Amino acid sequence: MAERINRTLKYGYGLKQTIKNTDLAQKMTELAVYICKGLRTHFSLDLRKPAEVHLNPNIKYKSYRKNKVNLPELTI
């Protein structure tokens, strides 16, 4: 799963090139993650945004976790 996220950040949000300024690299990464999780819809979530799904416990979605552990509620 981490490899999938890295690929999305590199190719989908232009973070493939080397960024020599670490502050700029961190800000670009934070913005890309915000866009990916907060603004972009996902097919695996029936074209919903991840933040929308996590804030609404009534929405069912596919989990990729192999073990069925009761996780604490995610706060965004």
Helix and strand string, N-terminal first? HHH
Question: What gap, in angstroms, lies between the N and C termini?
Answer: 20 Å
Radius of gyration: 15 Å
Q: How many structural domains?
A: 1
Round the mean pLDDT to the nearest integer and report it.
78
Instruction: Quickly count the helices.
Output: 3
Strand content: under 5%
Number of strands: 0
The poorly predicted ranges are none
Largest sheet: none
* Tertiary shape: elongated
Share of residues in helices:
40-55%
Structural class: mainly alpha
Describe this structure in words.
By secondary structure, the chain is mainly alpha-helical. The protein has one domain. It has helices spanning 2-12, 22-39, 50-55. The radius of gyration is 15 Å and the shape is elongated. 0% of the residues are buried. The model has no long low-confidence stretch (mean pLDDT 78).
